[in-house]
Specification:
Helices cover about 55% and strands about 10% of the residues. The protein contains three helices and two strands. Helix 1 crosses helix 3 and helix 2 crosses helix 3.
């Protein structure tokens, strides 16, 4: 799987459900949690994604 496709899928999942969790994304895409964390870290560095609030009860915000 290419990193680009995975990034797009992660963004799509977050767009559909901003309160989705990393384990839920990983399970849904058939990827490892560290793999999803790496993608999310990259998206945050690129200013494409922000976490609003705590891990439990917070949500994601897509920008850019």
């Amino acid at each position: 799987k290419s990193m680009v496709k995975s990034k797009v899928k992660v963004i799509e999942m977050i767009a559909q459900n901003p309160s989705v969790t990393i384990p839920e994304i990983a399970a849904s895409l058939g990827m490892s949690i560290p793999g999803i964390e790496k993608i999310i870290r990259y998206l945050k560095e690129q200013k494409r994604l922000r976490r609003i609030g705590p891990d439990k009860g917070g949500h994601w915000e897509i920008s850019g």
